[in-house]
Amino acid sequence: MLPPKTEYLIPKTIQDACSLAKKYEGDARIIAGGTDLLMLLKRKVALPRYLIDIRGIPSQDYISHEGKDGLRIGALTTIHAIVISPLIQERFSILAQAASSLGSLQVRQRATIGGNLCHAAPSAETAPPLLALEAIVKVRGTDGERTIAIENFLIGPGQTTLKPDEILMEIQIPNPSPRSSGTYLKHTLRKALDLAIVGVAVHVTMNGDVLSDVKIALGAVAPTPLRTREAEEILRGKKPSQDLLDKAGRCAAGECSPINDVRSSADYRTKMIKVLVPRAIAQAVELTKRS
Amino acid sequence: MFDNLIPVVLSINGSQQEARVGPLETLADVLRDKLGLTGTNIMCNEGECGSCTVLIDGKPMLSCLLLAIECEHKDILTIEGLADPVSGELHPIQKTFIELSGMQCGICTPGMILNAKALLDENPSPTEDQVREALAGNLCRCGNYKRIAECVLAAAEIMKGGGNG
Q1: B1 contacts in A (CB within 8 Å)?
Q2: What is the DSSP string of B54-113?
Q3: Does A9 touch chain B (CB under 8 A)?
Q4: Which of A15, A87, A200, A235 has a C-alpha 20 to 30 A away from that of B26?
Q5: Confidence class of residue B1 from pLDDT cuts 50, 70 and 90?
Q6: Do the Cβ atoms of A81 and A100 come closer than 8 Å?
């Protein structure tokens, strides 16, 4: 079977891109960095008649801080740019930590944060930190723009709430509270080029020696990256004793639904959640003391 | 299929090369099959091994995950473009790979050398840990990692001493 003829389209504006996506609905794929999409093309999982290349759209590649309105990251910003951004390293460090563990340097030079979110893998590297930081995404379609909380954006393996004519434009991250810090732990076998067996992002805010706020987000252990809110509740307002952290770890494991796959078993993933969630929280608490 | 070929002009190793490419053809395939530049090796063809690494505007990227059609208006450096185009003198990294046994089977070598060049162009004095971290996206099935790191560090010394770079 010969592959279908594929047309390569290069819109110059987001509106044009949305119009093309609507016109060719069901037959088109958006290509940005292409590091995930080319895999689908090679394996013939995706056979689009139209490739809509959005990298030519100007001004979609930026990291800017808007004061009290927080951080804005353009969807076409490369993962590498996020890794090396002093602003993100200093104030939104769990995102930089996660980004630095995505793929390999070669992949990060090309992959975009928008693509990582829209590909919506259960192990999407940037998702747990964005969940823990309570980020929202701004998308545009032919009818206009809307914003969506990340946890409502990722709804299943490879599935987002994007409508066919919508394109992700921007990630918005509110400023973290004072006396807060975070840690991202990726449990994986290799130094690079491997998905997480478990990805753990935590963000904690301390009030004295009490955890006034905790956000825990896990990747690769459920159909989507997720917040483990019951585990957070156990910790909120309490002192982070080891017993309490372990209890939160067990609770977090109960909120997940890991599977057996080529990387790991569900059982091992569950065990690792119980180890890594307490560890991440302890590290984050320690970091708040230094900042 | 042939009526779907698109003429492109690619800037490769300092010269403009024309090719007619399908919209889904990767840069790796076009370099090897249409432009005769077989120095770029394709091993996994899935972006998981780094063998196909080339430099795009000085940045290491995987040519098996780039569509050739996306690569117009970029400066592409392949392994063939590393030696001095006039004298033919090898780049210091190529020299150290030869002298210090940076190659066994050679499949990972072009990707390793180009990624190492990108590293040294940005950080002329890396530690061994920084070398290994920068090259973590290049797999060597022969397990030659230690020697490869030594070659890169030795090349860094030559380059700081004013060698060809």
Answers
A1: 2-3, 5
A2: EEETTEEEEGGGSBGGGGTTSEEE-GGGSS-TTT-PPPHHHHHHHHTT--SS-SSHHHHH
A3: no
A4: A15
A5: very low
A6: no
pLDDT tens for each residue of B56-112: 999 999 999 999 999 999 999 999 999 999 999 999 999 999 999 999 999 999 999
DSSP state of B3: G
Determine which of B65, B115, B120 to mutate to test the interface with A (most A C-beta atoms within 10 Å): B65
Decide if pLDDT at B165 tops 80.
Answer: no
Interface of B to A at Cβ within 8 Å reads: 1, 4, 6, 22-24, 26, 45-50, 53, 56, 59-62, 64-67, 69-70, 115, 132-134, 136-139
Residues, chain B, total? 165
Residue type, B49: C
- A189 vs B: CB within 8 A: no
What dihedral angle (degrees, nearest 10) is formed by the CA atoms of B85, B87, B93, B97?
Answer: 110
Q: What is the pTM of this model?
A: 0.95
Span B140-159, mean pLDDT?
97
Instruction: Express as a percent the part of chain B with pLDDT over 70.
Output: 96
What six digits make up the tokens of A134?
């309570």
In a 13 Å sphere around the CA of A52, the CA atoms on its Cβ side amount to 26
Six-digit token string for A246: 């372990």
